[in-house]
Amino acid sequence: MLLKIAWRNLLRNSGRTLLTVLGAACALLTFVMLRTVVSSWNSGAEYAAKDRLGTRHKVSFVIQLPKKYVDDIRAVPGVKQATWANWFGARDPRQPNEFFANMAVDAPSFLEVMDELVLPDDQKKAWLEDKKGAIVGDALAKKLGVKVGDKITLEGSIYPGDWEFNIRGIYTASRRSLDRSQFLFHWSYMNDSLPEARRDEIGWVMIRVSNVAQSAQIAQSIDRVFEERDTQTVTMSERQLQASFMAMFSALLKALDIVSVIILAIMMMVLGNTIAMGVRERTREYGVLRAIGFSPWHIRSFVLGEAAVLGLFAGVAGIGLAYPVVDRGLGQWLEENMGGWFPYFRVEPSTMVTTVVIAIGLSALASLLPVLQAGRISVTDALRRVG
Amino acid sequence: MSDSDVKEPEATTEDGDAKGDARDNESPAPKGDAPGEGAKADAAKADAAKDSAKSDAPPKSGPYRPTPGKPLIEMSNVTKTFHKGKEPLTVLDGLTLTIAEGAFEALMGPSGSGKSTLLNLIAGLDRPTSGTARVAGHNLEKMSDGELAKFRAQNIGFIFQAYNLLPVLTAVENVELPLLLTKVPSGERRKRAETALRVVGLSDRMGHYPRQLSGGQEQRVAIARAIVNDPTILVCDEPTGDLDRKSADDILALLTKLNQDFKKTILMVTHDPSAAERATTTRHLNKGRLD
Ligand SMILES: Nc1ncnc2c1ncn2[C@@H]1O[C@H](COP(=O)(O)OP(=O)(O)OP(=O)(O)O)[C@@H](O)[C@H]1O
Ligand SMILES: [Mg+2]
Fold it and tell me: How far apart are the C-alpha atoms of B189 and A4, rounded to whole Å?
């Protein structure tokens, strides 16, 4: 009965309730989007393969390692296979604004370490046999509009010049740990074309271990090998490696977090205002209820119940808005076009639950002041009020 | 709302009752049904008494048990001063008043003379600044807000000039409201609310919202709400102030019936001399004192 009253009171001014719910839902939509950006960003690290380590220069990603380190790493007990890659950083001159990851890799070992890469056998064979051969992820192939057999010229920046490639395969991934929008080609093709002084340098090493439980010790042993050399390394799990890469953007993420909080504060004010208006309008009714014998606690729970119902609506409406926008629209676009950053741009179920809980909680919080006011209503004054 | 909706309450009662309870009975005797109503309400009263006997309510709250020889309402030397604005405003000044159980009293007086203030004190909505207010065995001036709320729930039925029904609830839901404060189970609540609505002659308007009712009907719903808990005292502040003559007469007839058949003590503030005529006693309040 009490819930019925809260419910009907909300319907009574359905126009205002609708506007409030919509306003709060828009705020929640923005909140969900920001949260999804943050969580999707972090999920890049979360989807990382557990049995893989990465070794990079101790100081920075940007500084390269000698290629012979790969053999040293392969010699470390517990290392099943190691491969290496260089960030190539070239662009497609036809679509200079399309950014995509392109890397020089050692194809045979790369395919062993990245065992979630799915490539038809004939395409694999063709790639391995063609020095200028390259493979692209299916998401990127769609974006660049290339198919197997095409020729493509990329414009180098880190490695200047025009680089010609033959598309030999289009890969997919059996797990999310592999970005499906990469452009991969033979490291030897790049290396052989470089001037003597720049040869045999690699960006980082990717390692597959035989026993996940020992990965921490293996990482330590690898770094110990290079401790006394000119160039020291740091080895970490793929997850940490990606996280350290993303840490560069932590300031941005923090900003997004702050914006999320501000948006929630705005939503709270919208809800609080509606609740407060309701209480003001219903002062006389609350006075009547008090006269009949209802206690201030009853009145408070009336208002609180109304706020909770309003919050529930706002939360559900917010998700109702966010789901199509994020999952169907923006998310698909981002996954296809910026899969490297947002491998999985979807509203997580946990985000949905959190959103509804937050909406109800904040609505209740926003109603605190009106709730206190409603509890303090003087019965005689409320009844004297005309209207 | 046609005129026929607002006819003599008793007549409507019988009508509604015939439809509700004696549908299969081809010739319900209208006269015979009226006592049936009384019997039902008496049963409700007995139930309430049983409830309270079980819970063994402490004397501070709980339904009224009359003390022989003691009046129901005893206000003695009551003063009420308001402190809003700069100067204190003394509305009631050493007022003394006793009302016996079963009385139907009208309270008249010019606007601002303190009628509503006095009514609020008797009903336990407010406490006197000084003096004692003894109502239905309770010393109201000594009670806390919570105790007063309980006192009101158990002893007082309110009827206001502006009806004051909750617009979001139907007639029967409005009448059920006071029962939410009791231990009465929900099915029984609905039954009692329907009985109360039948008493006021609105058995055919149970599912209507206040905005779908005429003023007179709204006030009858308010009266049903006031009596559903079987209170000792009905407190009415200008119950007919917003009604036309015909509806007002219906309401007054209903109050008379409640006083005579159901033995409710009624205290009614009114500006209407013909309303006051219905009461057994009329008192006049002037400048905070009774003449
Ligand atoms: N809560 C209050 N605070 C301040 N002043 C009050 C309060 N309640 C009543 N008064 C004042 O007390 C006086 C008496 O008010 P009351 O409502 O009792 O008059 P009344 O006899 O019922 O008048 P009416 O016939 O117009 O209803 C008025 O001057 C009013 O302004
Ligand atoms: Mg008055």
Answer: 16
The structural domains of chain A, with segments of one domain joined by +, span: 2-45+249-384, 59-231
Whether the pLDDT of residue A343 is over 90: the answer is no
User: CA triplet A146, A150, A156: central angle to 5 degrees?
Assistant: 80
Cβ-proximal residues to A268 (8 Å cutoff; 6+ apart), any chain = A362, A363, A365, A366
**pLDDT at residue A130, as a whole number:** 95
Q: Which domains does chain B show, CATH number per domain?
A: 3-56 (no CATH), 102-127+137-290 (3.40.50.300)
Which tens digit of pLDDT belongs to each residue from B88-117?
999 999 999 999 999 999 999 999 899 999
Residue B60 — pLDDT band, cuts 50, 70, 90? low
CB–CB of B160 and A288 under 8 A?
yes
Q: Does B190 touch chain A (CB under 8 A)?
A: no
Q: Which pLDDT score, from 0 to 100, does residue A157 have?
A: 87
Please tell me if the CB atom of residue B115 comes closer than 6 angstroms to any atom of ligand 1: yes
- Tokens of residue A138, six digits: 């299916």
Residue range A118-167, pLDDT digits in tens = 999 999 999 999 999 999 999 889 888 999 999 999 999 889 999 999 99
In short, whether B155's Cβ falls inside 6 Å of ligand 1 is no
Picking from B151, B180, B227 by the largest number of A CB atoms within 10 A of its own CB, the best residue to mutate is B180
Report how far residue A234's alpha carbon sits from residue A59's, in angstroms, rounded to the nearest whole number: 8
Q: Give B-chain residues touching A383 at CB under 8 angstroms.
A: 125, 160, 164
Minimum-distance ligand 1 atom for the alpha carbon of B115: 21
Residue of A nearest to B157 (CA): A292
ipTM of the assembly?
0.76
- Close Cβ partners of A289 (under 8 Å, ≥ 6 residues apart): A298, A299, A302, B166, B177
Nearest CB neighbour to B149, from listed A8, A285, A295: A295
Interval A220-238: pLDDT, tens: 999 999 998 989 999 988 8
